[in-house]
Amino acid sequence: MTSNGGLQRRRVGGSAQKMEDHLPEESNSQFSSRSQQDSPNNSPKSAKEFDRLSPTLTLMEEVLLLGLKDKQGYLSFWNDNISYALRGCIMLELALRNRIAVVKDATYSYTRLSDRCVELIDSSLTGEVLLDEAIKLMKATQERLSVSNWIDYMSGETWNLTKVGYQLKQVRERLAKGLVDKGVLRTEKRSFLIFDMATHPVSDAATKNEILKRVTSTLLLTSDNALTTTLLENPDESFKPVLQLRTILLICSAYAANVLENALWNMDLEEREKCFDKVEGFYRMFGVWPVVASAKGYLDNCERAGSSKGSLEVIAAVLDVMSRMDSLL
Predict the structure, then answer these.
(1) Rounded distance, CA 150 to CA 176, Å?
(2) Domains of the chain, with CATH numbers?
(3) HSE of 9 in the Cβ direction (CA atoms, 13 Å)?
(4) Is the Cβ–Cβ distance between 115 and 149 less than 8 Å?
(5) How confident is the model over 58-66, as a mean pLDDT?
(6) What's residue 193's pLDDT?
(7) CA-CA distance, 329 to 323, in Å (whole number)?
(8) Nearest residue to 64 via CA among 44, 47, 79
(9) Hey, CA dihedral for 201, 179, 93, 150, is it positive or negative?
(10) Which residues pair with 100 in a beta bridge?
(11) Cβ-contact 311, 54 below 8 angstroms
């Protein structure tokens, strides 16, 4: 095993060439399902507009899908990371939907990203149960808490008994039931010798295959187009930078949750190694603030699409937490 800033992965081959940190310029059926009916001249600005243009599945649901065994319908019993990573995905999803932002503070240039406090900038509900529960918690909280605090408290990774009420319980089961409601999974009961357990096999293979294709195509893409390429010349493309950022965050979250290998199992060792190297490149690019030069122009496009700068800073802070997750748990 090797580590990078505290986040560990299995080395599956020899040294790999460093891949260019470029993004795919492609749409997918899940993303287009909501956006195709929008006016081409409407650039999303409000949180509710972000909800309307967001994919049908949340980041949490996509990460869970990547981790699920298709036929058996359950996660690996040895995965200790996914619960914590899913709480990080809740913060990422709220930031992508312009609900939360880092508090403006001149002293933050000297403060680690994950220790910067977060504020609720839009308390409107999303219609997603876990996201709305997190919004209500933040709205009811008088004190300002940091990004790492929120992830710790929501996951129960804290010895502070006064924060027990912040823990979001049965997250994986609730996500699975949500995917059942959306027709992606089905519910079965499986016997494990001494106990029975509800499992959720995949019933809509096309949805999971689309996620797998999006993840692998992003990781394997080699292109001469820089991240700073303007994507706003065509008004129909205005939301594309946010959707591309979402795919990068899905990959980083799956990596932190130890489920990314499930998407790469059919690759040869060299390809898999290149994919892992590219994920670590994403962390270096988007897990710092201010972001590195190669990512700045791209995030500028996200701002033009309506993303709050404070929300983008939250995203960088969550990636900072995920990069050190193995040392935190």
Answers:
(1) 23
(2) 47-324 (1.10.3630.10)
(3) 25
(4) no
(5) 96
(6) 65
(7) 12
(8) 79
(9) negative
(10) 120
(11) no
* Partner residues linked to 188 by β-bridges: 199
Q: Enter the tokens of residue 176.
A: 């699975």
Of 247, 239, 216, 214, residue with least CA distance to 307: 239
Mean pLDDT of the residues in the chain: 82
| Token representation of residue 301 | 């496009």
- Tell me: the pLDDT tens digits for 142-169? 899 999 999 999 998 887 788 888 999 9
Place of tokens 């990547």: 66
The two tokens of residue 201 are: 């096999």
* pLDDT reported for residue 228: 39
Give the per-residue SS3 of the chain.
CEEECCEEECCCCCCCCCCCCCCCCCCCHHHHHHHCCCCCCCCCCCHHHHHHHCCCCCHHHHHHHHHCCCCCCCCCCCCCCHHHHHHHHHHHHHHHCCCEEECCCHHHHHCCHHHCEEEECCCCCCCCHHHHHHHHHHHHCCCCEEHHHHHHHHHCCCCCHHHHHHCCCCHHHHHHHHHHHCCCECCEEEEECCEEEEECCECCHHHHHHHHHHHHHHHHCCCCCCCCCCCCCCHHHCCHHHHHHHHHHHHHHHHHCCCCHHHHCCCCHHHHHHHHHHHHHHHHHHCCCCCCHHHHHHHHHHHHCCCCHHHHHHHHHHHHHHHCHHHHC
Q: What percent of the chain has pLDDT over 70?
A: 80
